[in-house]
Design goal:
The chain is α/β, with parallel strands linked by helices. 45% of the residues lie in helices and 16% in strands. The strands form 2 sheets. It has a 5-stranded parallel beta sheet, with helices on both faces. The protein has a two-stranded antiparallel ribbon with strand order 6-7. It is globular and about 45 Å long. The termini are far apart.
């Protein structure tokens, strides 16, 4: 626990960012959050991120005092340029370049650049993001070398050290569930199941043991498989 450190968590409302918020609250004395609207095809995750914040503050009093401000940044102009299956109502499929059409080009680079500027302004020394190169959909901006390069670029561009923390980088989805259990026990696992949202289709009226979603989009399958791996089913 570093009581003097101040962190900014990229909070989307999904399983990974919810786990990262808990991870940061367990380590840093002050934690703020940032979210982005970029023309997503549904607003469910944006609603989920607020519920995650609220429920963590209610369910974990020891963390509530460390949870600071939240900001949502409108990046709709960028989303219009980087259209994908996450911003248009189209079927999920592999694209011509060998990447899934859920790939939003440069999304994490844009998010981290904006987060870096906000962190610099707010005096937040650590940026925490839930990117992962173990269980991911083939997105090149989730890889460790990409994030390391981005941290270097931000440090140079802001003329100040920028630390980007990626606690999930080498974890499978099953290990991410295990991390939540380690951080906050069954209460945190239940919170993530009930209040976070990962489904690409934005389905919120069908509940599975691992949470809400359509059950057959790539994000749901990844989350469900991770749950089964963790539970040993």
């Amino acid at each position: 626990m570093d009581h003097g450190a101040r962190a900014l968590v990229l909070l989307s409302g999904g399983q990974d960012s919810a786990a990262c918020l808990a991870w940061a609250l367990a380590r840093y004395g002050h934690v703020e959050t940032i979210g982005f609207t970029y023309g997503q095809r549904h607003s469910v995750e944006m609603d989920a991120r607020q519920r995650v914040r609220e429920q963590i503050a209610l369910g974990f009093p020891e963390w509530a005092g460390r949870l600071g401000e939240d900001i949502v940044v409108d990046l709709a102009g960028y989303g219009a340029l980087a259209e994908s299956a996450l911003t248009r109502d189209v079927a999920f499929e592999m694209g011509a370049r060998g990447l899934p059409n859920t790939f939003v080009p440069g999304r994490n680079l844009v998010f981290l650049t904006v987060a870096g500027a906000h962190a610099w302004r707010r005096g937040l020394t650590h940026i925490v993001t839930g990117v992962c190169q173990t269980d991911y959909s083939g997105y090149p901006d989730c890889r460790e070398d990409t994030i390391e390069a981005q941290a270097r670029a931000l440090s140079l561009g802001l003329d100040a050290p920028v630390t980007i923390e990626t606690p999930l980088m080498h974890l499978t989805k099953g290990e991410t569930w295990a991390l939540a259990q380690e951080l906050g026990g069954d209460a945190l696992v239940d919170l993530i199941v009930e209040h976070s949202h990962t489904c690409y289709r934005g389905v919120r009226d069908v509940r599975h043991e691992w949470g809400y979603g359509c059950g057959d989009c790539p994000a749901c399958k990844l989350r469900a498989n991770g749950w089964r791996d963790w539970r040993g089913a």
